[in-house]
Amino acid sequence: MPQVSIVIPTLNEAVSLGRTMRQLTLLNPPAKEVIVVDGGSEDETIAIAKQHFELFPPVTDVQVIFSVRRGRSIQMNYGASFATGEILCFLHADTWVPDDLVAVIENTLAEPKVTCGGFISLMSGPQTTRWGISLHNYLKTYYAPLLFRPHLFFRGLRLLFGDQVMFCRRTDFWECGGFNEELPIMEDGDLCLKLVKKGRITLVNRIVQSSDRRVARWGSWKATAIYLYIGILWGIGVDANYLKKFYQDIR
């Protein structure tokens, strides 16, 4: 029986969500459930999500729930509270996954010493593939914890971000307190710091594809500078609420 619950936080994601949902209907094996958690979308996000319900196999429960409070951490925790699968997978609405996603996740967590995993994120858009930034994001998984938390790096810490499609066991997630709802960004890095106390975090040698919409707006050099700036300041302990002002929402 499928045991992976996929949680998707949304806010005005009409442009990207349709493709994401279509790919989830093709998962083989299928997910146990797909939970879309909306934070008050004012576009066609909800309608697009519901259009795909009947395309999912009968074993997959699909639902849209509504979070009274808005925020990615808040919405993902809320979705996780509805999940019944043994494994939680947090998927951004603008990230596209392979059809064997569930099998890869289950095989990765079949190793008891692995507590959390994520994929290599290839950032791309309609015009180009962002090879340079994608490479930097890959390397950051390793060099950031080595630089800022070396004692944890050698215990298995790897720094994963939301566009890497993070997954973990539901019991471990809640025992760690879930995502910190006080953090407007870097909630994913914070979760890694908590989960590494339970086991290794691993980067799966498989690719997911994420939208380059933020890089397309900023430009490659500015985006790289912002990512580095935020990462370094977070690594030395600067409050994520201050860092949020450098990382505006882009749809």
TrEMBL record:
InterPro entries, alphabetized: Glyco_trans_2-like, Nucleotide-diphossugar_trans, Trfase_2_rSAM/seldom_assoc
Cellular localization per UniProt: Cell membrane
Domain of life assignment: Bacteria
Domain Glycosyltransferase 2-like: 5-142
Pathway: Carotenoid biosynthesis; staphyloxanthin biosynthesis; staphyloxanthin from farnesyl diphosphate: step 4/5
The keyword Flavoprotein is annotated on this UniProt entry: no
Keyword field: Cell membrane, Glycosyltransferase, Membrane, Transferase
Record has Glycosyltransferase as a keyword: yes
UniProt family annotation: Belongs to the glycosyltransferase 2 family. CrtQ subfamily.
Protein's job: Catalyzes the glycosylation of 4,4'-diaponeurosporenoate, i.e. the esterification of glucose at the C1'' position with the carboxyl group of 4,4'-diaponeurosporenic acid, to form glycosyl-4,4'-diaponeurosporenoate. This is a step in the biosynthesis of staphyloxanthin, an orange pigment present in most staphylococci strains.
Protein name, entry field: 4,4'-diaponeurosporenoate glycosyltransferase
